[in-house]
Structures are given as structure tokens and as C-alpha cells.
Amino acid sequence: MKKLLRGGRVVDPANGIDGQFDVLIDGDHITAVGKSLPVDGVTVVEIPADFIICPGLIDMHVHLREPGQEHKETVSTGTLSALAGGFTAVACMPNTDPINDAANVTSYIVNKAREAALARVYPIGAVSRGSNGELLADIAEMREAGCVALSDDGRPVATALLMRRALEYAGMFGMPVIDHCEDQSLKTDGVAHEGHCASTLGLRGIPGAAESIMVARDVLLSEVTGGAVHIAHMSARTSLRAVRQGKEAGIRVTAEVTPHHFAMTDDALASPVPYDTNTKMNPPLREAADRDSMIAGIADGSIDAIATDHAPHHYDEKRVEYDSAPFGVVGLETAVSLTFDRLVHAGVIGLPRMIELLSLNPARILNVPGGSLSEGAPADITILAPDLPVRVEAARLISRSKNTPFDGWELRGGVAATIVGGRTLYVNDATSLVIG
Amino acid sequence: MTPTESGTMDTPPLVALRSRNLLGIADLTPEEITLILDTTEAMKEISSRPIKKVPALRGKTVLNLFFEPSTRTRTSFEIAEKRLSADTLSLSIGSSSVAKGETLLDTVTNLEAMDPNMIVLRHVSSGACHLLARNCRAAVINAGDGMHEHPTQALLDAFTIRERKGRLAGLKVAIVGDLMHSRVLRSNIHLLTKLGAEVWVCGPPTLIPADVRRFGVHATSRVEEAVDGADVIMLLRIQLERMQGAFFPSLREYFNVFGMTEARVRLASPDAIIMHPGPMNRGVEIASEVADGQGSVILEQVANGVAVRMAVLYLLAGGAEHEEAA
Q1: Chain B residue with Cα closest to A274
Q2: Predicted confidence band at B326 (pLDDT cuts at 50, 70, 90)?
Q3: Residue B218: Cβ-neighbour burial (10 angstroms; 0-12, 13-18, 19+)
Q4: Which H or E run contains B30?
Q5: What's the mean per-residue pLDDT of chain B?
């Protein structure tokens, strides 16, 4: 069963490809990328010339909420949302209930993903048992069951000693440790970025330094141990400085930024809807200087990945006082449009860099298949429509939760289709694309 | 537009507020603030009559919902409502209803099903009044939300200053105390700057909100600088539990460095007035001699609170328009 994608612009930074090419798929893998590939015995799919054919996007930071919080999201609903957002694979954080700190929980998630048979799911295991920062979790067993990385996301690895041990121990398996950097003693009970906006609204502040102190610590520990550390959802300009210094020193540190941190500032807490709990996330939306710094880091290569930190919450949980609302917003279905609109069309980055940030680099950091259209690679392919007008409508999101801060935003650029293992699992009705 | 203290020849005086709610001073124009202060004068006259009651809010139901303990503000609202002939009900809702698992919105929408016209809300969370206003039919009056705003306090402060000084524009107002956690501070900064006062805020650096100068105020940790030549000195309460957060070492040291003593008051203008929103900690943010002294207008503030709240209730209920219809 062969399929030829013909007519689009192929962008595959792993192979240095950017141009009009055909992509030949045989079953579940890619067999060729080239000009005028033979069409005998092949189903030809015509792709509009301005559409982008790229390696499937990989979101290395999502919360699928299963097991335990199925009222927010499940593996099935979350991976369906991922497909609509152009992601062929997601890596899911371990702060489920129970926490994914043991092989049986990992296996449960892997089985749910297999049953759903939608986007690929790469579980991330807890660093510490119960993510409580004391004893290491059963890392080898979790790896055996399918975990690709370690994180206590939602909580930082509080002590430098445990972080050191984790980097050393995980290094044995080549697994990165992904850290949610936040010094709890500085964060205290903060709910918003410490700055003029929080001062005006009377919200308790979280300074950028609460994040950066731990980023700096992690860079140093990576140097000490040689282990790979990945900074989750980086938001503060001082954190970026620490990451840059680490990279210049040849330390194995990588970092991701979320679309909300490059597209929004803390002004969103005050307007258009004051105290909108869909602007409450951790780390918080920061001031313009931080947002601009994240954009600069994306442009100059200091930042390796765009990840959504997709954090679904039920509307009951968000329809409360700002202080009481849980942190987090959904992001899978808006990431591509925000990246196009705010970064590509704004002239900050080109398309190959966009694909690096959303596909190639996440694959490399997590050491998982995908990220390229190489011959023999899995046929995980995303087709993008760079000029598609997109209006975000919270009520129409596919995710089980609708807690987006982007409701009503009008953006340019979107997803046309998502192909996983050769199977076309999502086609956007708003495009005229037809894929058998 | 230049802030004015009363309507000018070019712009006729306002007769109504734009919003049906009073969520904060930040939302008010200088003209609206002046309208409330002018209306307060009429309301104050009512309070001086032998029979302190007018029928302005007859047939209106006002719910006072206090999710945080309050004596002064709650009593003040209740008296104001009764003097306007509203039917009033006050509920002190502690943490017990939260423990029962009911959300703020569920609690309030259940009460709202009984069709009150206005809800006066005091809540520990900043923004709670906005949440209510978005989800309720009744008009919402903010009686203090978290660290955000306490608009009727700032209005009664402004009324008291105006009564004593004849104006707000050009006055130097020094506000000293726990700035960070104070909703009174935020409402006062908005109001005083909108009406053209020169505002100085003062406290230990640990208790000054981030980027406070962007509010258009002077900030200092030298209390002598703040009160130098001031026309108004306003003290803010120091909460005893702040020592636990390491905001300052001890109440004694706080008093030594920031406490408003007679010696410090002498640095201010000779006819400076001393204000405090209460409750006071004597010997912490203010010396008793100052609280009880010549310039103190602390009890006038409390008295004016009733008139200001009458004015706010009256204007939000529709003012003269409603009276004509009734």
C-alpha cells in the first residue's frame, strides 16, 4: 500500500531539505523523498504547493491526566487533541494519580495509547518515588516499560543532591532529566508573575528568580555529572542567560518554551477579562522583557524546543477565585497557529527552524524515533497550511478541557493533516485537502 | 483630560455612574469619583437629621456577604443600607462553607436565586468581586477583595481629606505601613493620583509591591522623607503575622524605624491630618499620642464611611432616576 504526497513544500531540517519534493510512503514508513517519483501502483495525493510537508510534530511536554483525572483528559482524548494540533507524538508527564513512578503505571499508559491508536505516546517517568523528592523511582523498570525521560514535573526536584543522583543514574540509560525549575521558598504562595500587573491586581507574585535559581543549579549539576538536563517551560530572561552560559561551556543543557510564554504577557491577567483563570499557569505569564527574551532565544538557537505544557482542567476547577484555580492551560491545538503567527510570519524564524523546534529537536532530546523524513523512518508526517486563517474557539477544541487563554484569537497558519505510521488520522475540514 | 474636583463650565456635572458595579477605584473616572464625593455631602446631611432615614432604596434588597471577618466595614454598610430604607441581610461566611465543598459561585448564585438587587462582597481572594460581577444579575459592590481594592475605604478617605483641606489636588499624601498586602493602599493610590494629589508611599522594602512607581507615586523607605511637609499622613495596619514571613524583624524595630511618632509628625505640614483605616495597632504603626492627638481624623473617617456608602448604594441603585420611578 503505497502513497505519494505530491506537490507540497517539503521541510526536513534533519536532511537539509527545503523545497518542492514528493514523499513516498510504503505502509508505515517513508521510502523516498525526491523529484518526480514514479507513480505506478501508487495512490497519489495532491498537496497544494504552498502547504508544508514536514516530519510529524512532537510535543515533549503534555499532561494526559490518565490514570486518575479522566474528567480533565484521557490518553484517548488527549492524543486526539494532539492530532488536531498536528502532533504525531506526545511525551506525557508523570503527575497522574497514581503518579507514574513505577512500571505498572507506565504500562497502563502505554496500553491505553495502544488501544487509542492515535498519536504516539512516550511516557515520562517520575524522578522520585511519589515525586516527593526523596527516593529515586524505579528508573530502569520504568524505562523497560516505555519511559523515555524523567521528571517530577509540577514539582521541582527540590534538593541538589537528588538532582545530582538522578542525572548520574539516568545518564546510565541515556535518559534526560526534565526539570520544572521553581524554588518553592521563593515562589511561596505566589500565583502570578511578580511585577506591575500582579501589584495592580493584588495577586501574590512569583519572581523570575524563583525559576532561574534552579536553572542555574541544574546547569551546574549537569556539568558535574555529565547528565543531560532539559529545562521545562522556561519563562524568565534570567533563566535563558543561565542556559546560554551553560551551552557556551559545552554543558548538556536543553530548554523548551511554551507558546503562551512567547505569545502572551502578564497584561493578559488584567484584560480583556480581569482575573481570567485561564491566564493562570506555572510558570506564570511574565512581563514583556521576558517574553521578548524567549523570542530572542528561539531565534538564536538558545532554546531547543517549543512544547505546550498542555494542562487540561475541568471548567468547574477554573470557575473559582484566581487564588484557588489550578495552574495550567491546554495548548496542543493552538501551538502550530501561534508559532506560525507570532514567530514565522512575524519574521522571527524560518520554516526549517520551526520544524527543528517542534519535531527534530524534541526527537533528539528524548531520543525517540521521528523528527525526520529519512528513508526508512516511520511515516509520521504533518502537513501544514501556513496561510490558513484560524480563529481559536475554546468550545470547539477537541481536548476534553477547554481552558485556553487564546479563545477568540485570530491567527494565520494552521494544520492541514496529521499522518501517523502512514495512517491519515486527521484532516482539517477548513482546508480542501483530501487524503485517502 | 485634567482631573477636576467638580464639574466645570464646559462639562456639565455627572449625574450617574457608568457601571452598575463598584469593583474598584481603577475603573472610575475623576468625574465619577467627584460625583460620589458630592453625593456623600448630601448623604451626610441625612445622617445629621433626628430621623436618619430616607426612602431612596425602599423595596431593594441588599445582601452583605462577608467571607472575611469585618466589624467596621460591615456595620458601616448595614447602617448605610438601613438609612436608605433597603431590606438588608448580612451573612458572615467563614471557611465552613468552603469545607462543605461549595464554591463561591455556587454559594452566591444560590443566594442570588432569591433575587437581591445588590451584593456587597468582602472576600480574601483578589478578583472575587470580578468573578461575581461576571456571573450575577445583582450589582456588586466591593467591600474589600484580597490585596486588590477596597474602594469605599478610599472614597471615605478622600471625602475626609476634602472636607478638612477643601481639595485633593496638589496635596502631599504620605502612606506608611504594609503596602504590599494592602487593598486600602491600592484603592487610595488610584483615587489620589486621579484627583491630582502627590502620593508618597513608605515602608520596608520587603513590604513595597513590585514596580510600585509605575502607579505614579513616589516610594521610599525613609519615613522622614515621606512625611516631610506632608498635608496628610495615612498609616496602614501592620499585621502581626508578617514577622513570620521575615518581612521585618520585630514589631519593636518596626515602630522604631517606621512608627508614626509625634517627632515624625512634626516634620509634616503644621496642619497635617493623621488617618488610619483601622483596626489600629497602637505602638506599632502609630503612637497612641498621634492616634489620639490634634491632627487625628480617624474617627471622622469612620463617621464619613456611612455617608460614602450611602452615596455609592444610592448612585448604583440608579440615583435620582430610580427615585422618580418609585
Answers
A1: B130
A2: very low
A3: middle
A4: helix B30-47
A5: 91
